[in-house]
Amino acid sequence: MCGIIGVMDRRRQRMDGSAIKRALSMMNERGSGEGAGYVAYGVYPEYKDCYALHVFFDNTHETKRIVDTTLEQWGTIVHDERIPTYDQPGLRAIHIPWRYFFKPDPNRMSHSRSPEDDIVAQIVMRINTARKGALIYSSGKNVGVFKAAGWPEEVADFYRIEDYKGYIWLAHNRYPTNTPGWWGGAHPFNLLNWSVVHNGEITSYGTNRRHIESYGYQCTMFTDTEVVAYLFDHLVRKHGLDIDLAVRALAPPFWDDIDTMPEAREKLNRAIRLAYGPAMMNGPFAIVVANHDAMVGFTDRIKLRPLVVGECGDRLYISSEEAAIRAMEPNVERINMPPAGEPVIGRFVV
Amino acid sequence: MSLGSTPLRYRISIDRERCMECERCIENCSYGVFRREGEKIMIDSRKCTACHRCLAMCPRDAIMLEEYPCDYRSHPVWTRQAREAIYNQAKTGKIILSGMGNALDYPIIFDRLVLDACQVTNPSIDPLREPMEVRTYLGKKPSRIEVKKKENGDVELVTELVPNLQAETPIMIGHMSYGAISLNAQLSMARAVAETGTFMGTGEGGLHERLYPYQNHMIVQIASGRFGVDIDYLERGSAIEIKIGQGAKPGIGGHLPGEKVCLDVSCTRMIPLGSDAISPAPHHDIYSIEDLAQLVRSLKEATEWKKPVFVKIAAVHNAAAIAAGIARSGADAIVLDGFKGGTGAAPRVFRDHVGIPIEAAVASVDAKLRGQGIRNEVSIIASGGIRESADVAKAIALGADAVYIGTAALVAMGCRVCGSCYRNLCPWGIATQQQNLVDRLDPDVASKQVANLINAWTLELAELMGAAGINSIESLRGNRDRLRGYMLDESLMSVLDVKQVGA
Ligand code: SF4
Ligand code: SF4
């Protein structure tokens, strides 16, 4: 189950979170009140050059010190604060959400091609595998994840999502089946600027996880979705693939189709499949992924989960349900359902 | 003789009411169990190997075979086998030879691993309605790909792929040489792999010219004896395999007795007629990983970098470290042969006691290569003890790209695993060079049987994948989440890196 929705404004006009909250609640049928979450791009313009680290603390006396020390060791904490929350009757506040605006010191990882990203990625893996009562669940620049175990409205009201504005929003209503509903397990999953919402199950998780872990990523969230964020980071940031080629690696065409492609395309697709076979994802899924450049939605190769796309002016919507899109934008046009495995990519025009 | 004889292993009897004295048992038994004396078919059970040829050929189902019930003084340590081996060696002072695979009663790890299936939240996939991809590419893969954008926006591949074998199923047939087995047996399997789009190994016996039509499905082997190896041989194969070791006899070479070296075998192997073909334990030019890397390189150079080069080792406890070295030697695939692997002939003590199970070897090699971030750049082929499609699925889930079957392919041709392959008397025409016996194996029929087996296992594999919600073999490979250990001890589960049932 699970309901997903994403919206982007191609001219980077920022939208507040009220509409997406409405849209997500429309899909309550697809959730069980055990997890919901939102992510917004462009949400911290005043700190846009800092990495915004969102952390769940079990308590702030003991565990916060660990994060503070680690961050200070690798760079400068420009600002940090408790993320404002507002008690909700149905939502048990288990963790304390905190945010840091952090500038890593690139000299600490001079051998790397993207030292700042590498420092932050490594801090995230380190803190999260240590499991000492602190979990970094959002770590991009000018991007923020807001999630908890609860129904979509409750989670939205808990963070007052309408107070935030972004030019891409993704949201997720969770019906957990293979792991317990806990805050860390709620979507969106994020690493650096990558965020992922996912409906379905990744049956290739064991393969994907063993693959990505051999490049230093650590899967710590007990759920299959986080691996998608890492795979995108690995393929796009580390291997320099375009987003559409990365999607091709994750949901490649069948061999029978590759065999009959014109030569240049055939070679390219064969190479992607051979090089990135262990990254390919199997099982039923519909996924929406975003970073600051694009939003992309795609399904598994035989489309075992629904995905609907709509457009309205500069806005692109991708969701599990048309009704959810209409809840956001009643005048939506050009509703369509992309074929299995075919990515729908939204890019900015400015 | 102070030791006397040991009791019979098997007892053959004939139901005289049913027997019609057609003498087919006499004709068929190459071990000489049956003979006619006057009016009667006589039996010498002592010669029986339980090859079942007579049972299969008797038109009246008149023959009965049973293990001979003979009680030694019962003793948990001094088993019948232990005592009989000693009587034997006390008489002969020799190494005891045996054929086929490990005959000791070790627990089979495959049988203590169970596969997963989807329910409710994750639909299973029906292979009859949806595409199921079992095609497997074997060979070096690029660690990453580079592309270039052309002016018209097209994306062009910059990375060059090196040649891979394209197998339509991850089930291949391992190396059994001409010499160890008959030409008809090789021919039957060659036709079967050509028909099913997969590959088989030549073994170390060279490539007979009657196999040339199937050369695009043959992997030519280079073992320490270098039998039959010349440039023509290398060029004919679709891949080249360097055999360092074999699961049935790690650390020792091979020995084809002179009786099996008939004229044809001697030509194919390029050795004198009737001479023992002895493969030394090590290759005369490989005493280190650098030497191996040189051989890999020179083979590639000799064949203009057009063919993948595999390296086969016996599964031993240090296999992971060795495999990592092989991966860096430039080899395209690592073949791991587990200690249940079969053989034409091996000292019994090696066959039964040296090496480790393939399950553990694959798991640890896969883990080691992943730890070094190079797993996808080299293929792993698992062999030695693959008895059914479930074993194939489990081997792949543990980390193999593909499997080699050996004994299973022979069994598909009629082999009854009697374990007497080294005697050149195989009554099924498989492990023999005696023309009258070889003629018993009809390549038209046997190739069909082998192809049927490969097809049937491939179908079952696709069903198992579909049940697990997986429609491509890449997503089964190394997917240990789809396995659970049942009655396995904790330390073994940690080597295999699988959770226990219920977890
Ligand atoms: S093959 Fe059967 S029927 Fe024929 S002689 Fe032997 S036992 Fe009798
Ligand atoms: S190949 Fe022949 S001799 Fe060897 S085990 Fe099989 S039946 Fe017996």
TrEMBL record, chain A:
Domain called Glutamine amidotransferase type-2: residue spans: 2-350
Location of the active site: 2
GO terms assigned for molecular function: transferase activity
Gene3D superfamilies: Glutamine Phosphoribosylpyrophosphate, subunit 1, domain 1
Transferase as UniProt keyword: yes
PROSITE patterns xref list: GATASE_TYPE_2
Record keywords: Glutamine amidotransferase, Transferase
Highest taxon, organism lineage: Archaea
Name listed for the protein in its UniProt record: Glutamine amidotransferase type-2 domain-containing protein
InterPro entries recorded: GATase_2_dom (IPR017932), Glu_synth_lsu_1 (IPR012375), Ntn_hydrolases_N (IPR029055)
From TrEMBL, chain B:
Binding site for [4Fe-4S] cluster 2: 29, 48, 51, 54
UniProt keyword list: 4Fe-4S, Amino-acid biosynthesis, Flavoprotein, FMN, Glutamate biosynthesis, Iron, Iron-sulfur, Metal-binding, NADP, Oxidoreductase
Residue ranges annotated for the 4Fe-4S ferredoxin-type domain, each copy included: 10-38, 39-68
InterPro entries (alphabetical): 4Fe4S_Fe-S-bd, 4Fe4S_Fe_S_CS, Aldolase_TIM, GltB, GltB_archl_type, Glu_synthdom
Catalytic activity entry: 2 L-glutamate + NADP(+) = L-glutamine + 2-oxoglutarate + NADPH + H(+)
Pfam families according to UniProt: Fer4_10, Glu_synthase
GO BP annotation list: glutamate biosynthetic process
UniProt-listed Enzyme Commission number(s): 1.4.1.13
UniProt KW Metal-binding keyword: yes
Name this polypeptide is given: Archaeal glutamate synthase [NADPH]
Species per Swiss-Prot/TrEMBL record: Methanoculleus taiwanensis
